Please model this.
Amino acid sequence: YNHLHAPSNTFFDEISSLPRRLGASIIIDPTRPGIVNRRYRERLTDLSICRGVLVSSQGGVGSSVFLKSLLKAQEEGHMSQFFTNDQSDHDGLKHLPATAFRHDTSSLHPLSHHYTDSVCFGKALVIIGDPVHTIESTYRRFKLVHVNKLRKNLLALPKFPEGFELENVYRDMIETGQDTTGLSLYIESWVKASRTPKHWPDIRVVTAQTLYNNAVDHAAWMGVDEGGLHHFEDLAFDESKALYQTQPTVDGVQVKGEMVWEIFAPVAELVRQINNGQHI
Model:
C-alpha cells in the first residue's frame, strides 16, 4: 500500500499529443521540443503558482454531470482564475491517492518523476462513494480496465488477466482477507488528508449527494466566476440513487458477498460520514 507505480514512459509518449477537453495539459515540460502551444505554456505557468484545482474521483461515483457543467463554464471563459487536470484522465492524475502527492498547506505536487515541478494544485475536490458500486459500475462499462489501473497505481499489484470475471475479483479479496482493488487506500488517504489541514492545502471530499446538493458552492469554491455559476444552479442529487451498499454475490451466494463488505466496512463508514456531513 505504500508503493506507487507511475504509468509507463510509453503511456506518456502516447498521450502527449492528445487534445485536452477540460483544463490544462499539465504533464509535460512546456519547453520540450514540439510543444509550441502558447496557451498551453501559459496554463502551465499559472499552475506553477498553484492555481490548479485537482478534481479527483475513485471512479463510478456519478460525477459526470458536474464535470460537464464545469466544461461548459470553462468553454465560456468562466474559469480564468484556475485550471484542472484532465477529466478523461489522459494525464494520469484523476484517480491517484493522496499519498501520490508531496504537499504542504498551500500546494500538492505529484511525486512521480513523470510530472514537472510546474504541476501544482492549490486545492482538491475529491469525489468518493460506495466502493462495491465503483467496482460493478466500472466493470459494466470497461470490464477490469479501471480496477487494474487502481491496482497498478495504488497497490503496485499486477493487472487481473484479460477475461477475468467480476466474481473472481471478489474471490481474490475473500481469499486474501483484504481489499486488492486499491479503493480503500484511495478513500482513506484523501479523507485523512482533508482532516489534517495543518499539513495539506484546502481539500473537499464529497459524495455525489453532497456534490450535487451544493453544486454552486463547490463550483464557486473552485474558482468558477459568477457568470458561469448558472450552469450549476439546476443540479440536484437524484434521491433514487441515494447512498446504499451494493450487495455483491460470489458463486451466486450473497453471504459470500457480505464477506466482501466486511473488508470494505472501514471505508464504507468513512463514506457514510462524509455523506452525512461529518468531516472530523
